[in-house]
Amino acid sequence: MSTDRLTIVLDRLLPGDPDAGWPAAGALGLADKARQMAAERGDADRLAGIVAALPADFDDVSEAGQVAALKALEADQPDAFDLLILYAYGVYYTDPRVRDVVEARTGYPNRPPQPEGYELPPFDERLLDKVKQRPPFWRRP
Amino acid sequence: MHATADPHVDAVIVGAGAAGAAVAWRMAKAGLSVSVLDRGPWLNQQEAANSRDDWEWVMCTDHHPDPGIRKAPADYPVTADDTPIRPAYYAGIGGSTLHWGAHFPRFHPSDFKTFTLDGVGRDWPIDYWDLEPYYDLNDQIMGVSGLAGDPANPVRASRAMPPVPLCAGTQRLAEAADRLGWHWWPSDSAINLDQDGLGRNCCNQCGPCGMGCPRHARASTDITYWPLAIEAGVTVRPEATVGRIETDDDGRARSVLWRDRDGAWHRQAADLIVLAANGMGTPRLMLHSTSAAHPNGIGNRSDQVGRHLMHHPTALVSGVFDESLGPPAGPFACALYSQEFYETDRGDTGAMRGYQMQAIRGQGPLGTALGGYVTRLDWGGDHHRQFENSFQHTVSLTVTTEDLPEPENRVDLDDRAEDAAGVPAARLTYRVSENSQRLLTHGIERTTGWLREAGATETKVTALSRQAGFHFLGTVAMGEDPDRFVVDPAGRVRDCPGLAVVDGSVFPSAGGVNPTSTLQANALRLADLLAGQTPMRRGRAEARDMTT
Ligand SMILES: Cc1cc2nc3c(=O)[nH]c(=O)nc-3n(C[C@H](O)[C@H](O)[C@H](O)COP(=O)(O)OP(=O)(O)OC[C@H]3O[C@@H](n4cnc5c(N)ncnc54)[C@H](O)[C@@H]3O)c2cc1C
Ligand code: SF4
User: Fold this and answer.
1) How far apart are CA A138 and CA B539, in angstroms?
2) Which residue of B9, B110, B212, B346 sits 20 to 30 Å from the alpha carbon of B40, by its own alpha carbon?
């Protein structure tokens, strides 16, 4: 069975890095979710349109050829390409499996900001010792 | 068209945002009957998406400040083909404060007198000390954390709460500013840091304030002014879209026509009609409300309505550090600022007036990848390396420049689209002036140096932030000269008795800082004048400052 073109596109945009543990976006099976997210925002046709605007032989050329085709499309239709990037990065970085990798690689916890929030030490006024020496320098009308 | 007559009130206010809320409360306290109409709904911030797994997606889409991306039902159409800066606003009870960053600086005294001091722009008909008591009053109601004593500004009253904490990245900036011998100071922030204060929860440093604050720590007028205004008797009507200001044969404003959520029309008559629909929405309504007495739109006899649009053209420079700075903790827009280059120093900047540099904390994973305010990460083979190098390794500085009023920069109408009430789209026509460009160039160089001094190994420059059209100022300016200023110093529209403007439209000049504390302080002052009250006494800080 031939691979869905959006899956190939996602794999070229976010190809993964096996050494660091980053999965490729297409291989995660995110194409359908990306289409669903686009449909929820009334962008289904635009997303399909930008993928359809790739050359007819896109699926069959080498990976390097696919990257070149995407670069040409980006140069030719930057706004439409922005939309493709929105859905590609959007579906990837909201996927829990990717968020687990983010946590493993960076320590950023895989949870939303609320309700826990984060801890920061209170502002330390001693940091201002030097600035406080400065006389007022606002301009008097 | 059939329109149901609402009971007559002393004042009807169009717009329930930062300015409308302050004016409604103040007028009701003065004994006026007040009704408020806003095209947007009430929002429940306790349900804000910060607690959802897909919070970043919501932030990039349904809660995006740009109406062209967000596509919310309450938004009105905006044509932004002829401006490099996209509009950012929000429609709802609370207006754009529902989405704002809550950075709460004040104007400097010089900002009110740019023409007298520098021969550019337009003086305000008042000065800093006229506004000072209103700044203080507004601070009490919004709830401000920070620290008095900033040498870049006049003495001000103690802040109610201590400053918002710094994070690893912003602390590096503070230390680097000291090494450079530059000014910096912790931000005044309209954010609650007191567990027991204000009836709101304490900020827990979650980060993305722009989505709304489920803890009600970040002030927005739906949770600050509106409960007080409603208690004082104000009627607030959400999802009430004003389509026209109606005038009588003599040209006096008598009523507004508004459309409810079901499409039914109403007529609200009032002794005073107050526009607080922001610096884009207010001129849009005035220009649309043509009649025999006002053939070019209300107040537009001299073709001044909508002109002199001022934003704060903003550059953003991000510093990337080798070491991790930790999770993006703390309110994203509130940490510290520098006003080292705020006052005019033409020999240094090559420009008149100046700019503020404001620290912006890091973003979440998707925000980092997509960029938003900064450049997005490349797609392809290098993406994952770039992500690891940037995410939790970045802190940014804005260069927020003072824009000068230029008549060609404007809001007018675009008949090609209209909202459900039949009001045409607002059209923005805007160029960054040479003066603002010089300030941006200077600021990019200085912020780059600051970030390098802080230890950044790479800096990324967004020379003009496209998504930074969140301040709409000066489009219906107030002043003494009837030929140049559409409204008088009390906010009254000169050619149209019974109509007043109280939002950022009336700013003669824009300052180089975020405008909302000044906008609300001025709105409170105008409310007093419009309600026939004696204005509050000029600030006492003047005497203290003059002795320093
Ligand atoms: C993303 C973002 C971040 C910001 N951050 C900061 C910050 O950190 N510090 C700062 O000082 N400022 C900030 N601002 C700006 C601040 O929000 C505005 O200065 C302030 O809200 C303007 O107040 P206003 O009352 O003039 O307008 P708004 O608050 O925009 O309110 C106007 C209201 O009018 C309503 N309206 C418009 N037209 C009609 C109509 N025809 N009928 C009925 N109702 C109508 C709208 O629905 C809206 O609710 C930010 C803004 C945004 C968008
Ligand atoms: S950082 Fe603080 S003020 Fe901002 S949304 Fe989170 S809890 Fe609220």
Assistant:
1) 17
2) B9
Residue nearest to atom 8 of ligand 2 (CA): B213
Q: 10 Å Cβ neighbour count for A74?
A: 15
Q: Percentage helix, strand, coil, to 5, in chain B?
A: 30, 20, 50
Name every protein residue with a CB atom under 6 angstroms from any ligand 1 atom: B 14-20, 37-40, 65, 88-92, 95-97, 99-103, 210, 241-242, 276-278, 281, 285, 333, 470-471, 503-504, 514-516, 519
> What is the percentage of chain B residues whose pLDDT exceeds 70?
98
Supply the DSSP string of B4-60, one letter for each residue. EEEEEEEEEEE--SHHHHHHHHHHHHTT--EEEE-SSPP--GGG-GGGSTTHHHHHH
In the Cβ-directed half-sphere of B176, how many Cα atoms lie within 13 Å? Answer: 22
Residue whose CA is at the smallest distance from ligand 2 atom 4: B209
Query: What's the pTM?
Result: 0.97
Q: How far apart are CA B390 and CA B392, in angstroms?
A: 6
Please compute the mean of the pLDDT values over residues B333-341 and round it to a whole number.
98
Could you list the residue range(s) of the whole structural domain that residue A83 is in?
A: 5-113
Q: Share the mean pLDDT of chain B.
A: 95
Q: Is B4 exposed, middle or buried (0-12, 13-18, 19+ CB in 10 A)?
A: exposed
Which strand (E) or helix (H) includes residue A46?
helix A44-52
For B369, residues 6+ apart whose C-beta sits below 8 A from its C-beta are A89, A92, A93, B376, B377, B383, B387
Task: Provide the pLDDT for residue B1.
Answer: 78
As a whole number of angstroms, the distance between CA B209 and CA B538 comes to 34
In terms of DSSP bridges, do strands B265-275 and B499-501 run parallel, antiparallel, or are they unpaired?
A: parallel
**Interface predicted TM-score (ipTM):** 0.96
Look at chain A and report how many structural domains it folds into. Answer: 1
CB of B526 within 8 A of CB of B23?
A: yes
Q: Tell me how close the Cα of A127 comes to any Cα of chain B, in angstroms.
A: 8
Enumerate the H helices of B310-433 as residue ranges.
346-349, 365-370, 383-390
Q: Is residue B390 within 8 Å of B377, Cβ to Cβ?
A: yes
In a domain, A139, yes or no: no
The domains of chain B, with CATH numbers, are 4-49+56-545 (3.50.50.60)
Partner-chain contact A102 B57, CB within 8 Å: no
